[in-house]
Design goal:
Length: 75
């Protein structure tokens, strides 16, 4: 079988990888805060808003994790 040669990340890709790691950590913190708010309870409107924000954060995390995986495989 032919091996695929690994290429080194460009400077821009390395910076993107570092940024993604920080953004993922920030998103996780924001999500934890929203989950804590949900667990405390609130009005129906607040619960709906927090739930929607959690969905958006989760989607953003998934997108960023996929890109992080792509970059980290080449690192």
């Amino acid at each position: 079988m032919a091996q695929v040669a690994k290429r080194k990340l460009s400077y821009k890709e390395q910076k993107e990888l570092e940024t993604l790691e920080k953004e993922l950590a920030d998103l996780e913190k924001a999500k934890e805060t929203l989950v804590a708010n949900l667990n405390k309870g609130g009005s129906h409107d607040e619960l709906a808003k927090w739930s929607k924000q959690i969905e958006e954060i989760t989607q953003s995390q998934e997108d960023k994790e996929m890109r992080w995986l792509e970059l980290s495989e080449n690192a």
